[in-house]
Fold:
Amino acid sequence: MELLSLFAVCIICVLTCVIIFSFLYDADMTTIFCEKFGRDVGKEMSGKVVWITGASTGIGAALAMEAIKKGAKIAISARREPLLESTKAKCLEQGANSSDILVLPLDLCDFDSHEQCFKVLLSLQA
Structure:
C-alpha cells in the first residue's frame, strides 16, 4: 500500500508543477523544455530555405520575418501578390538581403500550380 501512496503523491506533485508552470509561463511544458535545453533555432535555420504559405498577412508574415532574423532564405507564397511585396518590404527592413526572399504567388486551392511553383523554387536553389 505504501508504494501506491508514494506513486499517488508523485502524480499529485507532477500535476501541481504543471499547473503552476502553466500560470507562470505562456507556453506548454514541451515548449519550455525545448527553449531551455533544445537546439539553437538560429543555428538550425541559418542558410536553409523555408517556404511559407499564407505569408501575406498574420502568422505567415510574422513567421517570414522571424525566419529572416534567424538567417534563413525564404520563399513566401499567398494569393495576393501586393501583400506579399509588403511582407518582403518588412523583411528587408529587418536587414534581409533581397536575394534571400522569393515572392512566389500561389493559390493553394489551384492544385495544378503547385508543381510549377515547386519547380521554380528548385531551379533557384540549383
Remarks:
- The CA atoms of residues 52 and 60 lie 7 Å apart.
- The two ends are 66 Å apart (CA to CA).
- The mean pLDDT is 86.
- Strands lie at 49-53, 73-77, 101-103.
